[in-house]
Design goal:
It is found in: Cell membrane. InterPro entries: Beta-glucan_modifiers (IPR050732), GH (IPR017853). Its main location: membrane. Glucanases play a role in cell expansion during growth, in cell-cell fusion during mating, and in spore release during sporulation. This enzyme may be involved in beta-glucan degradation. Active on laminarin and lichenan. Keywords: Carbohydrate metabolism, Cell membrane, Cell wall biogenesis/degradation, Glycoprotein, Hydrolase, Membrane, Polysaccharide degradation. The chain is 35% helix and 14% strand. By secondary structure, it is an alpha/beta fold. The strands form four sheets. The protein has an eight-stranded parallel beta sheet. The chain has a two-stranded antiparallel ribbon with strand order 4-5. A two-stranded parallel sheet has the order 11-14. α3 (44-56) packs across α4, α6 (158-173) packs parallel to α7 and α9 (242-270) runs parallel beside α10 (302-319). The termini are far apart.
Length: 404
């Protein structure tokens, strides 16, 4: 008779309820694409390389976004192989299932009142992976920013998300999915009722009742352009040093995110509902030649990105909020036609295997010793020279320098 594997039993008992909000299980958004197209999928060896890097950073919970490509099935294989090789290896997934409206990403006009015919097969693929890897997949997220109205190419109404959340919850009830698997949707704070009253609908209220927890997004960096009032240097700080002006702005950025988080939590509670709220996505680009760069709000650079990362980790760990920081590695496919576009530069590690300012301390601690990414050892950007880094940092604008 074969002796039972107690390690496997223990892992299967570890649930989303145990992991989410636990500072020992840091979360991050992950994509492993190295090239400027998703036609070139990351290989299993490349994915395993990334998992080893993230593991030594203390990351144990990943967020992925869709299952129509080979990346996520291969990622699950990679994690499973690493667990077989080392029984102490831990990595769990918040598995994203992409949801669109009819005619999304086509030459036709998107119909936001009808869902895409592809959604059902995407949900089916997510279910199959959750069934195959119950020791790794702990959460399924239905849609990514799929309800927010500025996602004009593909957004759907909350009733579509509600339909699929209820479907997954029913699969749990009848035993086709683990009852401990948590179901959510990951969306902008406003989509969860934390802002514009236009989102306050009965379908949203029913969705909040149906999910196991709320996964909300907050991006003060983007708002430094779209809602810059919090970002500009106030008159009473005009005489501060540049570095103090920047630090004050980053503290205001933190407060901006905290207010959006509170807005979602307060809307939920006014419905008489009390369930966990976590941050499904937030981040700060290290480079931009668009709205957020030197000719715009002057927000995007490595120093500010590093401070935002530090401030968010400190706050969310203290409050036991899971924060899926966006993102682990730079991904050049996100804005393939504009290499200097901000979407390509949200990673904590760049394509040369260099750790950005946010995690220079981990390089100093030697956690990456013996690890490489694409043949590159993990070193610091700017050769670790903070003076050189600060030369490329811009002070947030004064009121007269920006259009509100």
């Amino acid at each position: 008779m074969q002796k039972p594997n107690n390690k496997t039993k223990t892992e299967k008992q570890l649930t989303a309820a145990d992991i989410l909000g636990n500072p020992k299980y840091l979360a991050i958004s992950y994509g492993g694409y190295r090239k400027n197209t998703r036609d070139i999928q990351p290989t299993i060896p490349e994915l395993k390389e990334d998992m080893k890097i993230l593991a030594v950073m203390g990351i144990k919970l990943l967020r992925t976004y869709n299952v129509q490509f080979e990346e996520v099935p291969n990622l699950l294989k990679a994690i499973s192989e690493l667990k077989d090789e080392d029984s102490s290896f831990e990595m769990y997934l918040m598995l994203g299932a992409w949801v669109d409206c009819k005619n999304a990403w086509t030459d036709l006009v998107p119909n936001h009142e009808i869902e895409s015919e592809h959604n059902a097969s995407e949900i089916d693929r997510a279910v199959a992976l959750a069934q195959q890897y119950p020791d790794i997949v702990k959460i399924i997220a239905v849609g990514n920013e799929a309800m927010v109205h500025w996602a004009t190419s593909y957004f759907v109404r909350p009733n579509v998300i509600l339909k699929w959340v209820n479907h997954l919850q029913n699969l749990k009830k009848i035993g086709e999915l683990p009852k401990e698997l948590w179901i959510t949707s990951s969306d902008d704070f406003s989509s969860w009722g934390g802002g514009d009253p236009a989102y306050h609908t009965e379908d949203l209220n029913d969705l909040i009742r149906a999910v196991d927890y709320i996964s909300m997004h907050t991006y003060p960096m983007h708002n430094s352009h779209y809602n810059p009032e919090f970002w500009i240097v106030p008159d009473n700080e005009a005489e501060l040093s540049d570095i103090d002006k920047i630090e004050s702005a980053m503290q205001r950025a933190l407060l901006f995110s905290q207010k959006q988080f509170d807005g979602v939590a307060n809307y939920m509670r006014h419905l008489g509902i009390n369930k966990p709220v976590h941050i499904g996505e937030t981040g700060w680009a290290t480079l931009s030649n668009e709205h957020y760069g030197a000719d715009g709000s002057k927000a995007a650079d490595e120093y500010k990105s590093g401070r935002y990362f530090q401030l968010m980790r400190e706050w969310t760990n203290y409050e036991r909020i899971s924060c899926f920081y966006f993102e682990a590695f730079d991904e050049p496919w996100k804005d393939a036609n504009n290499p200097l576009g901000s979407e390509n530069h949200f990673g904590l590690i760049n394509l040369k295997g260099e750790a950005k300012y946010a995690i220079w301390d981990l390089v100093d601690k030697g956690v990456f010793k013996g690890l490489t990414r694409d043949g590159n050892t993990i070193t610091k950007t700017y050769n670790g020279n903070e003076k050189e880094l600060l030369k490329e940092v811009h002070v947030p604008p004064k009121r007269e320098e920006i259009t509100i």
